[in-house]
Amino acid sequence: MKITLKYDIGAGDVEVTTRISTIIAWETKYKQKAGSLAGGIGITDLAFLAHHASVQAGLSVPLLQAEFEKKLESLTVVDQPDDINPTLAATD
């Protein structure tokens, strides 16, 4: 599942896209299933996803999520799947 997010922590807009590992980390931290995101994504969820995706992409962001959140000036969803419920890719 890929969700593209745009945020600014004081150095201009940055755009990141989540990977499956980001969603797995979110599920682990918040003890929820990815399908529950379809019921509404909170700002805490978005901040976690943006921070995790940024760390995975090797971007220079505060190591701790709490510090990242303190610096956030803006955070928006640029693109998300219509069906946010994760599915396994078909295999041949």
Structural class: alpha+beta
Rounded mean pLDDT score: 86
Widest sheet, order of strands: 2-1-3
Distance, first to last CA: 20 Å
Give the proportion of residues in helices.
25-40%
Low-confidence stretches: 83-92
Q: Output the helix-strand order.
A: EEHHHE
Shape: globular
- Rg over CA atoms: 13 Å
Total number of strands: 3
Number of helices: 3
Task: Summarize the structure in words.
The protein is an alpha+beta fold. The protein is built from three helices and three strands, in the order ββαααβ. The chain has a three-stranded antiparallel β-sheet with strand order 2-1-3, with helices on one face. Helix 1 packs across helix 2. The chain starts with a strand and ends in a 13-residue tail after the last strand. The C terminus is likely disordered.
How are the SSEs placed, and which strands pair?
Layout lengths: L3 E5 L4 E5 L2 H11 L12 H14 L8 H7 L2 E6 L13
Antiparallel strand pairs: 1-2, 1-3
Helix pairs in contact: 1-2
For this entry, give a set of tags.
92 residues, alpha+beta, 3-stranded antiparallel β-sheet, 3 helices, 3 strands
What is this structure, in a nutshell?
The chain is of the alpha+beta class. The protein has helices at residues 20-30, 43-56, 65-71, and strands at 4-8, 13-17, 74-79.
